[in-house]
Amino acid sequence: MKKIAVFILTLSSFISISQNNVIDVLKQKRKSSPIDAIIYADSLLFSNHDYTKKIISKIKYEQAIAYTNNNNHREALELFNEILPIEKDKKRIIKILLLQSNSNVYLKNYSKATNQTLEALDIAKKNNYFNLVSAANSALSFIYYTNKDYRKAFKYLLNTVELQKQQHDSISLSVTYNNIAILHKNTANFKKALQYSQKSLDISLSRKDNIGIGKSYSNIGRINELIGNYKNALAYYKKAIVHNTKSKISNSIPYSNLAHIYTYLKDYKSSEKNYIKALKIAINNSNQYKINLIYKDLLKIAMQQRDFKKALKYQAKSDSVFNITVLHKNKEKIKMLENQHKYFKNKNELLQVKKNNNKNKIIFGVSLSFLLLLGLFWFQNTKRKIVENEKEKLILEQSVLRSQMNPHFIFNTLSAIQNSLLDNEPIKSATYLSRFAKLIRQNFDFISQDRILLLDEIDALKNYMDTQKLRFNDKFDYEINIFAGVAINTVEIPPLLIQPFVENAIEHGLKNKKEKGKITISISKGNNSICYEIKDNGVGYSEKNKEDKVHSIDVFKKRLKLLDRKDEKSFTINSSNKGTVIKFCLKQ
User: Fold this and answer.
1) To pair with 132 at 20 to 30 A between CA atoms, which of 53, 230, 278, 502?
2) Bridge-based pairing state of the strands 517-526 and 529-536
3) H/E element holding 169?
4) Which range is least confidently modeled, 7-16, 378-387, 546-555?
């Protein structure tokens, strides 16, 4: 009997260790690749292994953090909301609340974020979890920092400092000092920013924290750069580079910062040299985001030196990196969906097997089969509608992109720039080449987004109309009026929404007009909406160009209809030989 008890105990311990090893593997995957961790977690949750409720909760907890690290904050919140009510460990509850708060900050749900952090702070105080009290204070500081309420952000960071001093937590204290330095830097109190950066550096030096030392050197260099002390800034950036090289730390930031100062000092040779060093590190680290930024900076240097050959080379490199990044993201999404579908199918098959063991398996099997067929029909029907909507959306987006970036438009624009070069106007040519390059980048950036800031839409419109003015030798002027109450830096709209109407106004309304044309875009605030008016004094649209106009309107209305807010009903158009006026409103 004793042998049986020992065997059962040993088997139980083995199962426990095995399940904990699964969590350790999941943690490692989360740190190295959030996408792989999410997929691995799905495979664990939908497998036929009988994990305990506690292990399942831990798997979902790690998967939620992986979603957060991959900026999938809505998915992370769903999992946190699922595991929080059944969690009994108070420390874990506090951590979940703080992670929820962090995701809600990124989703701009500031009220929820604040309430969750205050709840976490209250639990931590009652149980004397001083480290978590510090973490909650830091989280509150981050919320107020994001809202640019620097006074309260300072208050909570200073609370954190006192707690960390009491606990002799020098590692966290170094990070907090650095955060205080960032706040002082953002409020232009550079003297204080330098003091706190130095405090952070002193702690890193005493602990021989090589990563912290390198970061502090770079931070101090950046503050010196902001106050115009370029000599000190250069010295600290070089210190960071020397330190990182000795410590075998791969960090491109000090080289980029160094290059930035050399660009300002017009030492383009040194600037390019350091950007290329930064580029090599970014490529070795496979950091596509930084690679793209560095190519953009190299493009600017080439433009400033009027080296158009290099400029075109760096522009092509930048576009190539962007395309690779988009392709990689799409592959990861497809991989995730395929795995989730696979494990979802396996889970349903497992449930079917278990149900077949019941006494009434025949009746239940028939009922279940009917329900599964019904569910499959609903699922397929819903999936078909989603695919059709996505396909229609993609077609509409491609139509908008083609309308602005068609070969005819690109060829004519490049010809106009070439003519200005032949007319010996290099400054004008460089300006328009830069503007045209920016317009191309904006279009490729916008087409991958569901919504963009109105500020960015207006900037793209200006670039587009300026480019068209170059093509048509200033045959028209334009004016953009933003009325009171329209916050263009917060209002969001679907990308490239106004451009097709501007294109029609130029190509069909003003192109054949003898007198100088004018386009006026007015944006005003209505009842819970933002209203737009595009007006031109062209010849109006005739039967010859009516088909293009109707096509543009049809594409526009379909795009609005996909938003499912009835905004398309507000659309009106009036055209005559004196011009065309288009109006519509978008709910906010």
Assistant:
1) 53
2) antiparallel
3) none
4) 7-16
Task: Name the pLDDT band for 167 (thresholds 50, 70, 90).
Answer: confident
Q: Note the pLDDT of residue 96.
A: 92
DSSP labels, 40-90: HHHHHHTSS----HHHHHHHHHHHHHHHHHTT-HHHHHHHHHHHGGG---H
| Main-chain dihedrals φ then ψ at residue 573, nearest 5 degrees | -140, 135
Residue 28 near residue 328, CB atoms below 8 Å: no
Beta strand residue intervals within 400-456, DSSP E: 452-453
DSSP output for 513-564: -SSPEEEEEEEEEETTEEEEEEEE-S----HHHHHHHHHHHHHHHHHHHHHT
| Residue 109 near residue 77 (C-beta atoms within 8 A) | no
Check residues 492 and 316 and name the one with the higher pLDDT.
492
Q: Assign 402 to helix, strand or coil.
A: helix
Helical packing angle, 210-226 and 230-246, nearest 10°:
160
Tokens of 167: 């606990």
Round to whole Å and give the CA distance between 480 and 533: 10
Over residues 95-105, mean pLDDT:
92
- Strand order across the 572-576 sheet: 476-482, 517-526, 529-536, 579-587, 572-576
**Residues of the chain with pLDDT > 70: what percent?**
80
Cα-flanking dihedrals φ and ψ of residue 53, to 5°? Answer: -60, -35
- Cα–Cα distances in Å, from 262 out to 33, 258, 268, 302, 313? 36, 6, 6, 14, 21
Q: How many CB atoms lie within 10 A of CB 487?
A: 13
The residue among 552 and 183 whose pLDDT is bigger is 183
Collect contacts of 88-94 with beta carbons under 8 A, ≥24 apart: 90/123, 90/127, 90/129, 91/129, 91/132, 92/61, 93/120, 93/123, 94/120, 94/123, 94/124, 94/129, 94/132, 94/135, 94/136
Residue 417's φ and ψ, nearest 5 degrees, are -65, -40
The strand pairing partners of 579, in sequence order, are 576
Rounded to an integer, what distance in angstroms lies between the CA atom of residue 98 and that of residue 140?
10
Q: Look at residue 180 and tell me if it is in a domain.
A: no
Residue 497 φ then ψ, to 5°:
-80, -35
* Residue 533: pLDDT band with limits 50, 70, 90: very high
Q: Is the pLDDT of residue 405 over 60?
A: no
Count: domains in the chain? 1
- Given pLDDT bands bounded at 50, 70 and 90, which one contains residue 299? confident
Q: Say what the alpha-carbon torsion angle 233, 147, 104, 397 is, to the nearest 10 degrees.
A: -80
Is residue 467 a contact partner of residue 461, using CB atoms and an 8 Å limit?
no
Question: Has residue 403 been placed in a domain?
Answer: yes
The average pLDDT across 317-346 equals 59
* Among 584, 509, 496, residue whose Cα is nearest residue 549: 509
Q: Establish if 498 belongs to a structural domain.
A: yes
Q: Is 491 helix (H, G, I), strand (E, B) or coil?
A: coil
Residue 427 lies in a domain: yes
How far is the C-alpha of 49 from the C-alpha of 52, rounded, in Å? 10
- Say which CATH number the domain at 426 has: 3.30.565.10
DSSP state of 509: I
**Is residue 444 within 8 Å of 438, Cβ to Cβ?**
no
Range of the domain at 538: 390-587
Query: For the whole model, what pTM was predicted?
Result: 0.49
